[in-house]
Design brief:
This protein is mainly beta. Helices cover 0% and strands 45% of the residues.
């Protein structure tokens, strides 16, 4: 059975320190044996009292790069529980993943895929006060960004004589549209998409906060603009510059309409369309 071998460097107080890519001449940075998305970021290494809870402040997934998944690592000399939670408003939180962390063992949530705008890690200590504790997070924006070196047995895959099934070769696909596109106040732009999955993710990024809506319908096959139904809202921005949503597809030919509801022209950084296979 494969076992993780993770390096926890010590800080000035002899507690586990940050695991990040090595920087020449900086002794507080080391190369971790497990290299996930370039490194694992330390959230806290302050030991918890009995039954004490660490709550990470809610993190917004919508930045220059849309965070699609997170991964948590926890180590403590006393048993506890690690939770990955998400929220639409940072007021009401739901648990996406929970993990029981054994004493003196590295707990790993594995990659956890998110669907709401905000996420956080929450750690609940057990009935005994800790002496050693470290909680790390890794962030991922795609399907293929896990790089593992050292500490793991080499995986093997038995391939049947007739090859792998097509489903085993599928990965989600992301495309970028309308880069640097300017939409005049009150105007709309349209985009026809050839969908290749069962769900579509839409993420829009603007250069300034404004009012903008993204609506979607479906094109009648064989036409360019005749639609099957009325447009329905997917994203509605009110004095904001970004948002992301996922929708189930009813047809392979969705049509997207972006409308500038503001009073001035708006410039689009890009519209990211993800096909969920």
């Amino acid at each position: 059975m494969a076992k993780y071998n993770f390096l926890f460097p010590l800080d000035a107080d002899s507690r586990a320190g940050a695991v990040k890519p090595f920087r020449e001449g900086e002794t507080d940075f080391v190369v971790p044996n497990m290299n996930v998305s370039g490194g694992a970021e330390l959230l806290t290494n302050l030991p918890l009292k009995a039954t004490e809870v660490f709550n990470q402040y809610g993190q917004d997934r919508l930045g220059d790069v849309l965070i699609s998944k997170v991964r948590g690592f926890a180590f403590a000399d006393q048993a506890g529980s690690l939770y990955v939670e998400e929220s639409d408003n940072m007021n009401s939180w739901s648990t996406v993943k929970s993990l029981d962390v054994s004493e003196n063992a590295l707990g790993d949530t594995g990659w956890v895929y998110l669907s709401k705008r905000y996420y956080r890690f929450r750690y609940v200590n057990g009935n005994l006060e800790q002496s050693d504790f470290a909680l790390y997070q890794s962030l991922g924006a795609g399907e293929q960004d896990v790089r593992v070196s050292g500490g793991l047995e080499t995986p093997s895959l038995e391939i049947p004589a007739d090859g792998l099934p097509i489903k085993a070769l599928k990965t989600n696909i992301s495309e970028s549209f309308l880069e640097e596109e300017t939409i005049a106040a009150g105007d709309s732009v349209y985009l026809n998409i050839d969908a290749v999955g069962h769900q579509l993710g839409l993420a829009v990024y603007l250069y300034e906060k404004t009012n903008l809506s993204i609506r979607m319908t479906y094109i009648i096959p064989g036409t360019s603009n005749y639609t099957l139904k009325e447009y329905e809202d997917v994203i509605v921005l009110e004095n904001n510059d970004r948002d992301a949503q996922k929708v189930d597809l009813l047809s392979a030919s969705p049509r997207i309409m972006l409308t500038n509801n503001g009073e001035t022209d708006v410039k689009v950084k890009n519209l990211v369309v993800t096909h969920f296979l």
